[in-house]
Amino acid sequence: DLIRCVKEGGVRSIGEMKSSTKCGTGCGGCMPLSTSILNKALKEAGVEVSNHLCGHFAYSRQDLYQIIKFKKLKDFTTVMSTVGKKADSLGCEVCRPAIGSILSSLYNDWIMAPQLRQTQDTNDRYLANMQRDGTYSVVPRLAAGEITPAGLKVIGEVAEEYGLYTKITGGQRIDMFGAKKQDLPAIWTKLVDAGFESGHAYGKALRTVKSCVGSTWCRYGVGDSVGLAHELETRYKGIRAPHKFKGGISGCVRECAEAQGKDFGLIATTKGWNVYVGGNGGAKPRHAELIAEDVTRRQAIKILDRFILFYIRSADKLERTARWIEKFPGGLKGLKEVIVDDKLGICEDLEKEMEVLVGTYHCEWTKVVRDPTRHKAFRQFVNTDETQPVSEMMSERDQQRPADWPVETGPLHFSILDVAKEAVWEWRSVCKYTDLDPQKDSPSSATIKYGDTQIAVWNIPGRGVRAAQNMCPPRRAFVLADGLVGEDDKGREYVSCPLHKRNYILSANADEEGGKCNDGDYSIMTFEAKMDEEKDLVYLKLPPTEALDAVLSTSKWMLRRATEESDAMAGGQSHSVEITGPLDMDTLEKGPSSPNKPGSPPAKKTKASCGEQSSLDW
C-alpha cells in the first residue's frame, strides 16, 4: 500500500502517507519502517528525499543541533526567527518538540518554564505519560530497581488514596496509572516529600538502567551490577536525547538484566566489564554489539559518556541508537574509531559536555511541587473548580481501569450544523484571558466546562483566540486542549491530537475548512472566539448549554463499559463496547452497579450520534 500510494496516489510526504493509508495513526510503532519504505519508494520514483527536520526548516536535526549550539539560541521562537523558512511560523508537531529536545540536550533548562513549556509535546508539558483515556501515569525513579520498604509503603499509600492502577514494569520500577491531570501536583508532592524524583518516563530521555543483583547477592555474580547500574542511572537521569534510551547491567555472562537488548549494556567479566551498544526491543529488535572488552568501571563510564553525547549530537529526530549505528558510516567499527580510538580527536570535548549536562540535573517534578504558581497549569477546567470523569472505570483483577475503546471507530464528523436550528448563538464570556496563561511568543491553552460540554481554548500570540470541542472523535478522549498547536503550508493553525497525532484546523470559518482533520474520516466543531485584554475576558459564540450538550455532552461521549462485560470477562469472549444511556455524576463517581445485580433493571441502550441532524450512529 505504501509503495502504491507513491506510484499511483502521488504521495510525497509522511503527512500525505498518513492521510492516504492511515499508516502511523495508531500506536506509531510502524513509523520508522514505514518512513524507510516511503523514502525508498520516493527515490525509485525519481523524487528527491529531503532530510530536513520538517517543512518549516531547511535543515536536518543534526544541522539544527549545531546551529543552535554555536548561535546560542535558547527558545523555539528565536530558533524559528533565526533559521526557519518563515520567521513568525508556529512550526508543527514535528519541529516544536524536536527543537525542545535539542534545547534540553544543550542547556538542560527547566522545561516547565513558560518560554519552554509550549514547545514540549503533551507528555513533557505535564511531566507524565498521557494514557488512552486522557489520564496520566506516575512513575517515580527507582534507580537500578532498588526501593526500600518505606518507599514501597509510600507508593502504596499514594496509589490507594488516588485510586491508581499499579504495575511493575520490565524496567524494574512501579507505574501508577489513571492519575487525573488535576491530581498530579498533589500526588507528586507526597512522592517528593518522601524522597522520590521524576522517573522521566514521559521524556525522550534516559528511562532506566536495569540490573540483576550481581555479586551483591548472587552466587554466580562476578561484578557489582546493582551498584554500577545505580551509578549510571543517577549519572544520566534527566538527559534528553533524540529518542528514549535505556541501559542494562549484568553481573555475569548469564545476562539476567538483558544488557544486550538495551541502548547500552555492560556485562561483568573476571577482568572487568564488556561494553555493548545499540540494542533495543520494539518493532524491530536489535542485539547490542560489543564495543569494548574487559575495561575498568571508570573506563566503561567514559565510553558511555562519549557514546551518549555523540548520539545526541549526530542522530536524526526520533532515531533510536540501533538505527543510528546501522546508518553510521562504517557501522560499529566506524563508531568505535570515534568514541574509543578517538579518531576525530573529540572524545575530551564529549566528556566535558557530558559533565556539564550531569552537573545541571534537576528533578522537574520537585521544581513544580516547590513552585505553587505552576500548579494551576494542571487544572482540568479554568472556569470552575468542578471536575468531571472522562471515562467509566471497570474492575479487573482487583484494580480499576478505563472502559475499552470501541471496536469500530467509523467516520465521525461534528459541525455547528448539528446543533438544533432554533438555538440562539450569542457571545458569552467563558473564562478570564489570564486563565490561558498567555505568553508573548508561544501558544497556550486551557479547557473550559460549558454545561456538560468540554471546550478547548487556545491563545495564539499575534493571531488571537481559537476554540473547539475538547474531544478527539476517533477515540472519544477529551484531550485536544493538551495537543501541540502548529501551522500548515497554507498558514492555518491546527491542533495535533496528543493520542495519535491527527491534526484539526482550528479556524471557525468554513471557507478555511475549520474543524477539518488530515484524516478524512473525522472532523471537529470549532467556535468563533475573541478576547478583551482590558476586561481580562475570553468570549465564545455559543448556543445555550442544553443545545450544545445535546451534541457534545461529556456524559454522552465518554467511554463506557459494555453491558455484557461481566459475561465476556468470565467466558473469555471478545468484548466490545457500546454506548449506553448517560449516567448521573454520583453514579459515575461511585462506579456503576453490576449489570447482573439481582433486582436491578438492565441499562437502557441509546444510540449516540453527532446530533439530531447527523446520520451517524454508533
From TrEMBL:
Please name the InterPro entries in this protein's record.
Answer: BFD-like_2Fe2S-bd_dom_sf, NasD-like, NiRdtase/SiRdtase_haem-b_fer, Nit/Sulf_reduc_fer-like_dom_sf, NO2/SO3_Rdtase_4Fe4S_dom, NO2/SO3_Rdtase_4Fe4S_sf, NO2/SO3_Rdtase_FeS/sirohaem_BS, Rieske-like_NirD
**Which superkingdom?**
Eukaryota
Q: Report residue spans for region: Disordered.
A: 564-618
Give all residue intervals belonging to the Rieske domain.
428-540
Q: Which cofactor does it need?
A: siroheme
Q: Which UniProt keywords apply?
A: 2Fe-2S, 4Fe-4S, Heme, Iron, Iron-sulfur, Metal-binding, Nitrate assimilation, Oxidoreductase
Q: A single Gene Ontology molecular function, please?
A: heme binding
One BP annotation, GO: nitrate assimilation
What is an example of a Pfam family matching this protein? NIR_SIR
Tell me if Thylakoid is a UniProt keyword of this record.
no
Q: Belongs to which family?
A: Belongs to the nitrite and sulfite reductase 4Fe-4S domain family.
In Swiss-Prot or TrEMBL terms, this protein is called Putative nitrite reductase
